[in-house]
Amino acid sequence: MSSVVAELPDFLRELLVSDFAFVVLFFVFVLEGAMLLYVAPSELLVPGALILVGEAYLLPILGIAVLGATIGQFALFLLAKRGGREYLLSRSWFRIDEAKIDRFDGWFDRWGPLVVPASNAMLFTRGMLTVPAGFAEMSSRRFLVLSAAGTLVFEGALAALYLLSGQVLA
């Protein structure tokens, strides 16, 4: 057990070392993918999970991260596709303003669907093309594949940086 986990309150430590740790992690990634996780930067989630749950669980953590975030993004994509621009902008939980939507709509119009995985793989734009893809009525299957691919690159890079930083600092 890592020293970070040992210092946590008993109930949280028990949860992180239980069979439910991956379930909790999955729901955290669903919220992150749906752009509803405002309390933690997405860049810290996989490294944090590796610290708390353990590096031995790298592949399950990456799988959960990609699956959870993709499901969250797909839910937001469907809301954009079915509800439209006005619907999303009228929701208090949707914290992206119209100017940003316009900017990312422009990206989508200029580069097409391939900007979805590219934006998912980059810092600060992660998930931002989900909404324009929904507005453009991209096919659901294509969105899922492209979203998952970009998320895998992003989360894999974060895991690699975390693991390499341990090698460099050791």
What would you note in describing this structure?
By secondary structure, this protein is mostly helical. It has one domain (3-169). It has helices at residues 3-6, 10-16, 21-33, 45-53, 58-89, 98-111, 115-120, 130-135, 140-169. The protein is globular. 33% of the residues are buried. It holds the Pfam family VTT_dom. It comes from Haloferax mediterranei (strain ATCC 33500 / DSM 1411 / JCM 8866 / NBRC 14739 / NCIMB 2177 / R-4) (Halobacterium mediterranei). It is a multi-pass membrane protein.
Short summary of the structure?
The protein is mainly α and about 170 residues long.
Largest sheet, strands/sense/barrel:
none
Domain count: 1
Count of runs of 4 or more consecutive helical residues? 9
Radius of gyration, CA atoms, in whole angstroms: 17 Å
Shape: globular
Structural class by sheet pairing and helices = mainly alpha
Beta-strand percentage range: under 5%
Order of helices and strands: HHHHHHHHH
Mean pLDDT: 89
Helix content: over 70%
- Number of strand elements: 0
Distance linking N and C termini: 19 Å
Low-confidence parts lasting 5 or more residues at pLDDT below 50?
Answer: none
